[in-house]
Amino acid sequence: MGRVLVIDDDAGVRESFRAALEAAGHAVEAAESGAAGIESARATRPDLVFLDLKMPGMSGVETLAALHASWPGMPVYIVTAFYGDYLAPLRDLESRGVDFNLARKPLTVREIQMIAAGRLGDKIGDEVPAGCGTKEPHVSRNGSALS
Question: How many whole angstroms separate alpha carbon 91 and alpha carbon 47?
Fold first, then answer.
């Protein structure tokens, strides 16, 4: 299984993701800020990052740019309830070749596990829903394209 980094300022969200991902057999690191997440990634490169956008201090957009600068191929899945507020900066990053996927909060345990399965190649059940795999980037949970 993979090593997953969860970056979110909400402790409840971090623990929910940890529980869902550990139940699927993944090693999970959690960080409460963008800066802490980057330090965690430097210590041990994750196979997948779940990233919140709306955080105090270093925003998720800034964190995404920094992760991409250090590890261009690192899979990042943005999970937020506020993606509309960040649409312009996300499109700017996308135009500069920063790759990411997008899902709207809240996510169920099954959805968290399915996203990880799609990005890490795990098998969970018989299907991986649209937007959860590597072949359909930039798709929100409701199926609308970011770009």
Answer: 24
What the chain holds in terms of domains, given with CATH numbers, is 3-120 (3.40.50.2300)
Question: What is the rounded average pLDDT of the residues 78-105?
Answer: 91
Per-position b or e across 42-68, b if 16+ CB within 10 A of its CB: eeeebbbbbbbbbbeebbbbbbbbbbb
Model confidence at 121, pLDDT cuts 50, 70, 90, reads confident
The model carries a pTM of 0.82
For the stretch 99-118, pLDDT in tens is 999 999 999 999 999 999 99
Nearest Cα neighbor of 79 from 106, 39, 118 is 106
Bridge partner list, 110: none
